[in-house]
Amino acid sequence: MSQSHDSLAPATTRPVRRHRRGTAILAIAAGAALMLGGGGTYAYWSTQTALSSGTVQSGNLDLSLGTGTWSLKGVLGAVQPVTNLANVRIVPGDVLTLTQPLDVTLVGDTIAADLKAQVGSAFTTGALGSNLDVALTVSSYGTPSGTNTYRLTQANNGAATATLTITFKPSTTGQVGASQSVNLNDISFTLTQASS
Q: Residue ranges of the domains in the chain?
């Protein structure tokens, strides 16, 4: 059976030119996008000049305590020196006094700091501690700026002597606080830069 010549004719191929042209256009567009996105070789003017002002230094804040001395004054009698606190038995009306040398380091053109005698939980809880009043005075610093607090500046840099008194409230009645102890190490001197 003979086939017609039309069916044996080769299939018609599409022109490739149009496809190649489209690919070339896409490649050019992609290259342009890369150049615009920072992948190109564009350069921009810039310059740099260092300061010639020299250096600036920081100040300092520090606090150290010397060896303090204790004394005891009762409702009756004179002041007695205390050589060993572990042997002291305080009663209502007694005043324990610590004379405490301290050395303040305050260096800074604008520095201000608060020196404070801070009491811990031993003095806010417990029958004995809660019946003890703690007061700080530093005569060379003038008037306190708050409870047990002095506002210092660079002019106060150096040595000073603080007086810390611990008073067993005379108003303590009954046997409140009897046969109890309180840790005096729960009192600390703090020096904190002022922010307001």
A: 60-193
